[in-house]
Structure formats: C-alpha cells, structure tokens
Amino acid sequence: MSTSRKIVIVGAGVAGAILARRLSALPGLSVTCLERVAPDDHSEAGTGLNVGPNAIKALRACDPSLADEVIRQSLPWARWRTSLADGTVLFDLPLARVADNAGIRIRIRWSELYRILRSGAGPAIRYGCEVTSIGPDPADALRTRVSWTENGMPHAIDGVDLLIGTDGRYSATRAAFSGLPEARHVGVAILRVLVQDRSNGLVDDYEQWFNRHHRLLAFRVPPDHIYIAGTYPIESGTAIPDEWKTPEGMRRAFLPEGREASPAVRWLVDAMCEQSAHAHWARMQESDVRFAEPVRQVLYLGDSAHGMAPTLGQGATQAMEDASCAAMLIEAAVRAGQNEVRQWLDSIEIARRERIRFAMELSVRATDTMLHGADPVAGAQWKTEAPFINDLTRLFRDVALGQPS
Ligand SMILES: Cc1cc2nc3c(=O)[nH]c(=O)nc-3n(C[C@H](O)[C@H](O)[C@H](O)COP(=O)(O)OP(=O)(O)OC[C@H]3O[C@@H](n4cnc5c(N)ncnc54)[C@H](O)[C@@H]3O)c2cc1C
C-alpha cells in the first residue's frame, strides 16, 4: 500500500508560504498550495509589520536559511519605548531583557514579508488560483475535496489526506467545515498609514506615545518609510465616526491639549493627517481558536485558527510559530514513517493550544491603556513590574514547537 500523502494548502500568506516550502521538500508528500493572488500582487502593501522575537526563534529552528533571509531584508527591533505625547518617557525596555534573540526582532514592510516567504517556496505555490469549493470527499469519511479555477480553467483534487487552511481571517476553509468564528471586538479602533520617512531621525525604533487613551505607535521600515498606527476607544457595535478620519479629528486625538507635543509626535500627526485619505481603519478583534476538525483531516493555522488582538504584534508572529511548529512535527513524523494524519493533527494541536490561549489573553490584557478613560501612566507602570515582564519573557522566549508523537 502506498504511504504517500496528498496535502492541499489553501492560501500562501505568512503561514502557508512557510509550510509550502518545507512540506514540498519532503519525500512521500504531494503538496499543492493554492494562492488566489498573482505572484507580484501585494494587496496589503502600504502598511507595516513588526514580528516578535518568538517568530524569529521558531522560524530559525524550522528553516534557518529562510529566517536569515527575513532578517537580512528587515530592520531589527531592539527597544520598546512608551512615552506621553509631550515626550515624557514612561518606560523604555531593551528587548534583550525579555527575549533570547536580542536585536533580531524585526520590522518589515508588509508586502516585503510576503515576497520573501513566497519566493522561498518557489514553484510549490500556484498563484492566481481562486478556490471555488471546499468540502468533504463524498467517497471518504476522513478526506476532503478542493476545486479551483486557474487561468480560467477548472481543477479539482479529491482524496486529500490533509487539507490545511492558511487562508487568513475570513478563511473559506474554516467556513466550509465549522463556520466562520464570531469576531469579539476588544473596544478599540485602529488606523494605520505608511508614509515616506522625512522625519530626519525623529522616528526610528518601535515607540508609542499616549495622549489620554489615544495611542500613537510608529517605527521605521525598509527602505525609507515610517509605519504609523493610532487608536481610538470605541464601543462594540458602533460605527467608526467620520469625524475621526479627518485631519482635525486626528489632531484632537493625538496632540495634547495645553501642552507642547514632542517633535516626533508633531511630525507623526502632520504626516498622518497628510495621508488621512489613505488610512486603513479596522477594529481590534479576536476570535475563537480551532486548530483541527474532529473527524475530517483538516488543519487551521494562523489567522484562520485564531484571530488575535494586534496589541503585541502577535498575529503574523503566531502564524509563523504555528507554521514552523506544524512543518517540524509533520517532517519528524514523515521521516519516522509515521503516516497517520490524525496523529499529526493531534500533536500540532497539543503543541499550540495553550500557547495561543496565552498569547491571546496577554494581547487583550495589554490593551488596557487604549480603552475608554484609561490612564496611560498607570497602564505603563504595571508593564514595568515583574508579572508583566515575566509574561512578556514567556511570550518572546517560550516558543511552542511541540514533540513528535
Ligand atoms: C493592517 C495590518 C497590520 C498588521 N500588523 C501586524 C504586526 O505588526 N505584527 C503582527 O504580528 N501581525 C500584524 N497583523 C496581523 C497579521 O498580518 C496576520 O495575523 C497574518 O498575516 C496572518 O497570517 P496568515 O498566514 O494566517 O494569513 P494571511 O497572511 O492573511 O494569508 C492568507 C493568504 O490566503 C490567501 N487566500 C485567502 N482566501 C483564499 C482563497 N479562497 N483561495 C486562495 N487563497 C486565499 C490570501 O490571498 C493570503 O495570501 C496586521 C494585520 C493588518 C491587517
């Protein structure tokens, strides 16, 4: 009997591209990774991304040369500084204190991360594939079937031994088997812009500035841009007011009243106002965790498995941890001749479930300073104390890559 396993990966984003590269290099697996966009399409270009040291640590363990390439093309993140909008520093944390790989937390332009990860996977990814249906294989209780169009032509694979949904927050894979999870809003709206760096060095490493409960966050990304994110408390279920999206609304939120703003904050607010028409607006939210279907051999990783509040920059970070973990566990099983897909799924879920619960809970807890009426001084204070520093150390150091079953 053949021990070859048919794997279909839906979506070559952060998690899918890492997996496609590793799994397609393994003997005994036939891997098809379907990505809807064209190879040079970076539809999310225009924003920034900071990836935690834990993602780099996990990727290094799984795929050292890919990790090196990501690091080479990005800027390091060495500090996390929090100040008031007038420049008064509230805390200034060297990441070396809480992370193993000090100085290699990275910032990267969104489109660059996709480009690097996808080019690492080479021909393992098929682009321009619009998935048209995902569902059970009618001839088999465990396996699945995927149909798609590519260059206008219909294609299908049935008898899929392992279907991996790495198709992001609005996962069609998850919707097909268990329905999309409901989003839980955490009470904060966020605006993001990417601007040309004309700050003359005012903005460089990761920094946050608070004006009451409004948080401005910025950092420099390659080649010469600055990523800016601003937050507003918002009640669940209410629409984002148009007034917030105007330059006047932005100045009211982020410039202190009756005090001079720091030069960096003045520059950032001016740059943000100039780009107000191009800002990306969203609500911070999270959703329930699901890694695998109980009967069908379907795995979810990254945003399709767990929507994450973005406060600690853990969305793409945990997608990288998930993918590194899954790739390493599947590889170990295949090399040991252990071809039971259900056991692969169980070992991935065991490795990741508690880790993700912890990252999600900490991300929501750290959002306190952005909620309505929050006091940024008190909010920064508890983040300098041992319990939070210990949690941050656990987040950045204790990557969960699991044990082969
Ligand atoms: C503006 C913004 C800023 C962010 N900043 C940060 C940050 O600083 N740090 C951080 O860690 N995280 C950040 N995140 C979150 C992070 O981007 C996500 O958590 C991460 O991209 C999830 O990775 P993923 O692999 O699960 O999905 P994605 O990266 O979303 O990839 C999903 C892929 O699936 C493809 N796809 C979807 N549906 C289909 C289909 N039906 N058929 C074929 N292909 C399909 C998509 O085209 C895409 O390529 C940010 C998110 C946003 C929106």
Describe this structure in words.
This protein is of the alpha/beta class. The chain has a domain at 5-49 and 64-73 and 108-183 and 288-370: FAD/NAD(P)-binding domain. 33% of the residues lie in helices and 28% in strands. It is built from eleven helices and 18 strands. It has a seven-stranded mixed beta sheet, with helices on both faces. Helix 1 (14-24) packs parallel to helix 4 and helix 6 packs antiparallel against helix 7. The model has no long low-confidence stretch (mean pLDDT 93). Flavin-adenine dinucleotide is lined by residues 10-16, 34-37, 47, 49-51, 129, 131, 166-168, 172, 192, 280, 302-304, 310, 313-317, 319.
Summarize the structure.
This protein is α/β, with parallel strands linked by helices. The protein is 33% helix and 28% strand. The protein has a seven-stranded mixed sheet with strand order 6-5-14-15-16-13-17, with helices on both faces.
N-to-C series of helices and strands:
EHEEHHEEEEHEEEEEHEEEEHHEEHHHH
Q: Tell me the number of helical segments per DSSP (H or I, 4 or more residues long).
A: 11
Tell me the major beta sheet.
7 strands, mixed
Unreliable segments (pLDDT under 50, ≥5 consecutive)? none
Bound small-molecule species: flavin-adenine dinucleotide
Percent helix range = 25-40%
Give the overall pLDDT as a whole number: 93
CATH H-tier superfamily of the domain at 5-49 and 64-73 and 108-183 and 288-370: FAD/NAD(P)-binding domain
Multimeric state of these chains? single chain
- Strand order, sheet with most strands: 6-5-14-15-16-13-17
User: Which strand-content bin applies to the residues?
Assistant: 25-35%
User: Which CATH class of the domain at 5-49 and 64-73 and 108-183 and 288-370?
Assistant: Alpha Beta
Roughly how many Å apart are the termini? 23 Å
* CATH architecture descriptor text of the domain at 5-49 and 64-73 and 108-183 and 288-370: 3-Layer(bba) Sandwich
Radius of gyration over all CA atoms, rounded? 22 Å
Class per helix and strand makeup: alpha/beta
What name does the CATH topology of the domain at 5-49 and 64-73 and 108-183 and 288-370 carry?
Answer: FAD/NAD(P)-binding domain
General form: globular
Number of strands: 18
